[in-house]
Design brief:
Elements: H1 2-10, H2 18-27, E1 49-51, E2 65-71, E3 74-80, E4 93-95
Parallel strand pairs: 1-4
Antiparallel strand pairs: 1-2, 2-3
């Protein structure tokens, strides 16, 4: 994650506040529906968008931030945990501030 955040910041993007995830969830009503309802697979969920925000704790068990998801036409705002060694897939989506 640090590499992703650094690369995005080098391109002029900024991290979002943690609160931005709440506003994104409240206002983004037409997020595409996920094709997979599974939640815990050690990877970002299908069709999720991770809100790029500062990490508040290096503790692996402490949530690192939030992601948005639409499962069975129900909008979700969920926390996620990972460490700095977690490998994100190239198809994973992040939301940054411009």
């Amino acid at each position: 994650m640090p590499n992703i955040f650094t690369a995005a910041q080098e391109q002029g993007f900024k991290l979002c506040s943690l609160e931005a995830a709440i506003y994104c969830r409240l206002f983004w009503k037409d997020q595409p529906v996920s094709n997979d309802s599974a939640m815990h697979r050690q990877k970002a969920p299908d069709s999720s968008v991770t809100i790029a925000s500062p990490v508040i704790s290096e503790d692996v068990d402490c949530p690192k931030g939030f992601y948005l998801r639409n499962v069975n036409h129900k909008l979700w705002l969920r926390g996620y945990t990972c460490d700095n060694e977690f490998v994100w897939d190239r198809s994973d989506l992040f939301a940054f501030q411009k």
